[in-house]
Structures are given as structure tokens and as C-alpha cells.
Amino acid sequence: MVKEKLIRKQPYKGKLAIVCGGSSGIGKATAKLLVQLGGSVCIVARTIDMLKKAVDEIKSLKVEEEQIVEFISCDTSNLEQVNQLFNEFFNKHRVPDYLFNYVGISYPQYTEKFEFKDLKFHMDTNYYGQLIPIITILPHFLKRKSGHIVNMSSVAGFIGVMGYAGYTPTKFAIVGLSEVLRNEYKAYNIKVSVIFPPDTDTHGLHEEARTRPEELNIISERAGLLQPEEVAEKILKDVLKGKFYILPGSAKFLWRMKRLFPKLVFWVSDGDLKKARKKLGKEL
């Protein structure tokens, strides 16, 4: 019902967004809803087949013929690729109003089993894969004195849980980066938002499950699961409101608990791990 009201209002009419990580999951759901709300989008990812399929889906939702729906195939952790292809897009169309950064991966494992290259891959993808689009588009936002950067963190961006030594530090880093950008560029009318979704039913989550430690699988069983469309709607509504922290589903409650009662959160997470190890016969 809320979505139908949003669609009727067309709040993104005349706006253009680049959606990095837009070929699947929350990114694709955001791009689809943006177009339904009157906006134009360019989705960015590496796999051309997935991009083409996503663009066909998104185009079918256009409400006006002049809406732009395009894609860029590149690795957003590659500065040269992003700089060249993004600027070609800007020259062909214009500088977008929004940059949505959804690029990210997660391959959980016991910390002692990670190789350094695994940890580096997480940082290259999840942190630099968002930072590079930002530093590419930022000079254009500064020149125009407007723009909105939307970065993807996670509940794991404020709560550290076993198994996520590769993933969680990257999400904490995204929060720190977002806070710096918010402070540094507020005077230039450049807005920043950072998203903290809980577990969401995406391809990435199913991929993650393949490498999760057994304890983490048990701990995750009681967590709620959102759909990408639910998260996308919350994001686009809060972006319109100019919110900095975007907290879908249970994330709002968990964020408040961690801020106000950190010792309680540690006690619960430690207890969950102890119960999981007991269930698996791995009591220490």
C-alpha cells in the first residue's frame, strides 16, 4: 500500500541514479523501484549477462518513454575502469543526482582459516569497491554543489559476530567513511546516507551460507529475513527524507541496543555462540 502511494507521487521524476551492484539483490530492487517512481538509472556490475537481464526487467517498469535505463559493465574496485566508463556516461547523459553503492561480498570463515588474500579481497570489494565510485563522482558533485551518496554497510557494521573477520571490518570502514563525507561536504549541499540492512534474501546471502562456520549457521537461524524489495522501499523513502542512518527491519532496534547497552549485546552474542558450540558438541 505504501509502495502504491509512492508510485502515484513519482518522487524521483527527472532524477538520475547510478546503482553500483545493481544487477541483483537489493541493488536491482532499488533500480526497479526508482524507475517505477519516475527516475532514470544506470546499473553497474561485472557480469554482462546479468546486467542485460536486469536492464530488461527494469525497462519494463518505465512510466515514461524518456526515462534512461542503461548499464555499465566494470569492476568498481578498478579505479581506471570506473573513471573512464563513468565519465563516458556523464558526457553522454549528465552527472547523476544519486550514487547508490551496493557492491559487496561475504565469505565467512573461522578467522584462523582466512588467508591474507581472502581478507584483502573483502576489503578491495566491499570498501574500495564503494570508495572508488565516490571519488570518481565527487568532483562533479562539488562543481554542481549538489548530489547524494548512499553507501551500503550492514548490521555487521556496528555488531561484530564470529566468522565475519573478513566482512565486518569492511562494513565498519564504510560507516566511518560515510561519517567523514557527511561532515566534510554538508556545506556543499552533498548529502550522504549509510544503510544497515539485517539478513536479506539475496543471492549473496545464499552464497555466504556455503562457507559459514557451523556455529554461525545456528546463530543466524533465529534472525529475521527481509526481502530485497522491502529494503529498497525503506532506502528510497529515507533518501527522500535526507536521513543519514537508514535502518531497515530489525536493524533499528539492534542499532539502539548496541548504542545504549553494548555490554548487554556482548552478553547476548557470547551466549548465542556458547549455545551453538554446545549444540555442536564443541564446548570449550
Summary keywords:
Rossmann fold, alpha/beta, 284 residues, 7 strands, 7-stranded parallel β-sheet, globular
The CATH class name reads: Alpha Beta
Question: Which percent range describes the beta-strand content?
Answer: 5-15%
Which stretches are poorly predicted, pLDDT < 50 over at least 5 residues? none
What is the CATH architecture descriptor?
3-Layer(aba) Sandwich
Fold and architecture overview:
This protein has one domain (13-257): 3-Layer(aba) Sandwich (Rossmann fold). The protein has 284 residues and is of the alpha/beta class. The protein has helices at 2-9, 25-36, 48-59, 79-92, 116-144, 168-185, 203-209, 214-220, 228-240, 251-260, 262-279, and strands spanning 16-20, 40-45, 69-73, 98-101, 147-152, 190-195, 245-246. The model has no long low-confidence stretch (mean pLDDT 95).
Structure summarized in a few sentences:
With 284 residues, this protein is of the alpha/beta class.
Question: What topology does this entry show?
Answer:
Layout: H1 2-9, E1 16-20, H2 25-36, E2 40-45, H3 48-59, E3 69-73, H4 79-92, E4 98-101, H5 116-144, E5 147-152, H6 168-185, E6 190-195, H7 203-209, H8 214-220, H9 228-240, E7 245-246, H10 251-260, H11 262-279
Parallel strand pairs: 1-2, 1-4, 2-3, 4-5, 5-6, 6-7
